Input
Amino acid sequence: MSFQEPDRFFTISVDSESEDSKNADQAQSLASMLGRETGIDLKILTVAAFKVIKAVGVLFVLPLETYSLDKYTNYILEVAKKLEKKHHTIYLNKNDKENVDQCLKWMKDNNITDLYLTGPREEDSPGIYERSKKFFVLFFEKLKEQNKES
Output
């Protein structure tokens, strides 16, 4: 299966007997069931659901606590809940160091080894790109330190 999204190209190649084939079928089913009213292309929703299925946990990166979820981010939340995936939310208006510590603790406590990241796009939340970048630079520095210690 191949899916095109603006600025991105996704390819999911599966043989009919593989676990990925079952995951792809489940992703299509979730997209049809949960994404029906979003107005977002079903192919994009299928790829997103596939990625959530493959992940151990989902991290929601939001600008602030009062942020109303956009349709895509809300869809990912519904998929995560339906699949009973562990998920965590950080708010970028909070202290970055505390967010990083909290996120790393959540990952360690829940044995999160494969993480799906989601949140609003820059066009829906001006400034989110720079705030997210600042958070993730600190996040990866701290993760690197943590990995050296263990």
User: Anything to note?
Assistant: Residues 1-15 have pLDDT under 50 and may be disordered.
